Amino acid sequence: MKKCILGAKIVLPHAVIDDKALLFDEKIIGIVDPTEIPAEAEIIRADGLYAAPGLVDVHIHGYLGEDASDGTADGIRKMAEGIMKNGVTTFLPTTMTVSMEEIERALDAARSLKEESKHWCGAYLAGVHTEGPFISESHKGAQAAEHIKAPDADWVLENKDIIKLCTVAPEEAGGMDAIRKITENSDVRVSVGHTDATFEEALEAFSCGATHVTHLFNAQTKLHHRKPGVVGAGLSAPVYTELIADTFHVHPGLYSMIAKVKGDKLVLITDCTRAGGMPDGEYSLGGQKTTVHGIECRLEDGTIAGSVLKLNEAVRNFMNNTDLPLYEIVAAASLNPACAIGLGETKGSIENGKDADIILADANFEIKKTIIGGDVRYEV
Q1: Which one of the listed residues 271, 301, 323, 355 is annotated catalytic?
Q2: Domains defined along the chain, listed by start
Q3: How far is CA 248 from the centre of its chain?
Q4: Which of 57, 158, 223, 295 is most buried when burial is the number of CB atoms within 10 A of its CB?
Q5: Which residue stretches of 5-98 are H helix?
């Protein structure tokens, strides 16, 4: 059945428009004049709201007490339903550096749910992001050193049906060859992260096929004027670059500069843990105790350990701390991440023929309604 959103400010890839109507069924049909709305269309009034593309989170470990690395179907379902209320319509549950047995259970759980997720009351599960175990011990961050392994392209390729994105420290033994083998033999995207790579090694990783940097500035070699590190490589190369825009992981004074440098390669993520959507207190991440206070999540030794960020909050933080147009900010949380994992032809923007994944949000980017595949799955 055709539906029509009327009265909204429609967020397109390169503009925000008023005085038009958004027509869709399971796909986006088009932007029409209100006088051209078909008589049989169901009208959804959205006066004063933004109609924007559904958000895409390619790096999220958990939410509402659940963690992707737990490897339970019910836990992933709960995550999917919870983040849908934050405007996320597509996501990659993200595993940690835990044992290979735990990672494989998590992959199996996600694999068993992928088809179901096209129709359930929650965000679509597009695949998994494996953040580890192929990382550097010196930049492990909140990940468990005992489970770190050398990059293993064959293992990734054995699971290429469900892995969409794989974080790798390219300087580790066999890292460059693994990146080349993975990217030449699958659609899996490789991200440089949790790494001690130099600027030159990061650029070599990109030449081998890596197209992505995991949470810029965090758990990687820093930017120095004589040693630009992975941060410098991520900023200067035409690769997708994640940013945790919670105002804690990266100072908001840098948001405008990063966005202007990266353009359509900026990808807002949450890196959210099981503590997301929960009260302050003690939780676990990758088998390690974490303490949450406000927007800060830390291990017992003080190491930053993920976040409790919601993706619509990341959009709001950019709205409040930059002068960027809203359509660019929204694209960083929708179209850019969709393109980063190869889904840009069907998701991430309001364009004719794309999946009707649409959110209605107020001026503060609080979510009022989430539509997935043309069906209203959540509304306030």
Answers
A1: 271
A2: 3-51+353-379 (2.30.40.10), 54-340 (3.20.20.140)
A3: 18
A4: 57
A5: 73-84
